[in-house]
Amino acid sequence: MKYSVTLIVDNLRGSSENSFTGDFEPDLKVLYMTSGDKVLVVPGSSIKGVIKKNALMVCKNRDPIEEIFGLPGTKQGKVEFGWGYVSSAKPNKRYGVKLDQKLGIVKTAHLYSFEYLPGKLSLKFEAREVYPLSQNSREILKNSIKLLKYTSIGWGGSKGLGIIKEVEIQEG
Questions:
Q1: What's the DSSP call for residue 150?
Q2: Which of 32, 45, 82, 111 could hold 126 in an S-S bridge, CB 3.0 to 4.6 Å?
């Protein structure tokens, strides 16, 4: 079974907090896959992480969660999450500073930058069953994908700036 998913997102953000160059430029090479033209992508691991978080809210039983996503380092899940391809958009750059949470002041030498994609964007990805799922696990996966609506998604360690407004799933 294959699930083709389209998310309509308002803004996307990636974090480059730990990977900026000396001139404070974002280094988000994972965002770009090139085959002629530049294509913006969100890693499948970022998509998988948000869907897994939803699955943990939907299902308290760990067996279907392990069946779908696997266990870190020991058991592979039965579902593969592909890269999320973003509709064309021109990235913008913003800067920020890290705050000392205890003192509530700016930390010394902690300027960082991040890129974000402004406006309404379409993000498309596929989730494929590498091995057939049980009917229960299939329902949990679909419901977890549907729960993406009104959540945020980002990449590179970012919790996200973008809010998902619509979720469309096609099974095939």
A1: T
A2: 82
pLDDT tens digits, one per residue of 134-150: 999 999 999 999 999 98
Number of domains in the chain: 1
Of all residues in the chain, what percent carry a pLDDT higher than 70?
76
Q: Is 109 exposed, middle or buried (0-12, 13-18, 19+ CB in 10 A)?
A: exposed
Amino acid at 123: L
Domain extent, residue 18, equals 2-171
Provide φ and ψ at 112, rounded to 5°.
-140, 165
**CATH number of the structural domain spanning residue 16:** 3.30.70
Give the chain's largest Cα–Cα span. 53
**Contacts of 155 by beta carbon, 8 Å cutoff, 6+ apart:** 12, 14, 15, 28, 30, 31, 42, 43, 46
Identify the pLDDT of residue 166: 93
- Tens digits of per-residue pLDDT, 29-55? 345 444 445 667 778 888 898 899 999
Secondary structure (3-state) at 153? strand
d(CA 113, CA 8) in angstroms, rounded, equals 25
95-98, long-range: CB < 8 A, 24+ apart = 95/24, 98/17
pLDDT at residue 35 in the model: 44
